[in-house]
Design a protein that fits this description.
With 236 residues, the chain is an alpha/beta fold. It is 36% helix and 28% strand. Bound molecules: adenosine-5'-triphosphate. Keywords: Amino-acid transport, ATP-binding, Nucleotide-binding, Transport.
Length: 236
């Protein structure tokens, strides 16, 4: 079942068109990849979907419902969470206060209930909840950033380069976590430069080049036809 449909998304920064007429979709209970070289438009695509940058054109459908006119806050309420590039935790704030930002707008009792669920799932996070987030390792911070996104109980998580700056072991741990997220039907749209992680997690992916979709389909096919290496080597 399709959770997210993006039709003809265009985002321009002044005269520079970063994303040009992108169409893609993501399915329930799966991780869908977005691949491409630096500057291909991956981050802008996620920000455009989440209403964080102005779209020049494009329709966004969530479970078939048109949410194009929704601002970011309304999209979060509708079940779309963004886990941004570089994790964007507040390093001086406690882990708990960072997590609570993910359940902003809910009553205190509901926030507590969601925190309890998070602590049940991530035992080590519970133990360290009063520590500043900046004290954690990169991999731990990524886990907390994902946990914060999950605090909004999303049906779709937009996840930007979770492997960035992490050790190989930490990348595999993030991969383990992403596999568990989809088990309850949650969809993940994953921007990644780490092809190994995409091959591990994603059945399908979209390859972006110069702000456009250069290829899309089963990851195995994209690798076999050379679409993935072309994108990274700038041949698309
Ligand atoms: P990376 O892997 O380097 O993050 P990306 O595929 O995510 O790359 P984007 O960050 O989406 O690419 O950038 C796409 C293009 O839009 C680039 O040419 C970039 O310089 C430009 N761009 C992105 N954000 C802005 C902005 N706020 N103002 C002007 N240009 C921007």
């Amino acid at each position: 079942m399709t959770v997210l449909t993006v039709e003809n998304l265009t985002v321009a920064f002044g005269p520079a068109v970063a994303v040009r007429g992108i169409s893609l979709h993501a399915e329930r209970g799966t991780v869908t990849g977005i691949l491409g070289a630096n500057g291909a438009g991956k981050t802008t695509t996620l920000l455009g979907i989440h209403g964080r940058v102005r779209r020049s054109s494009g329709r966004i459908l969530l479970d078939g419902q048109d949410v194009t006119g929704h601002d970011t806050a309304a999209l979060v309420r509708a079940g779309v969470a963004l886990c941004p590039e570089n994790r964007r935790l507040f390093p001086a704030m406690t882990i708990e206060d960072n997590l609570l930002l993910g359940a902003d707008g809910h009553g205190r009792r509901e926030q507590r209930r969601r925190l309890a669920g998070t602590y049940e799932r991530f035992g080590w996070v519970a133990e360290r909840r009063a520590e500043p987030a900046g004290r954690l390792s990169g991999g731990q911070q990524q886990t907390v950033a994902i946990a914060r996104a999950l605090m909004s109980r999303p049906r779709l998580v937009l996840l930007d380069e979770p492997s960035s700056g992490l050790s190989p072991v930490a990348v595999e741990e993030v991969g383990d976590l992403l596999e568990t997220i989809t088990l309850d039907g949650t969809a993940v749209l994953l921007v990644e430069q780490n092809v190994h992680l995409v091959r591990r997690l994603c059945r399908t992916a979209w390859v972006l080049a110069h702000g456009e979709v250069a290829a899309g389909g089963p990851v195995a096919d994209l690798v076999r036809t050379g679409a993935v290496s072309d994108a990274y080597l700038g041949r698309s």
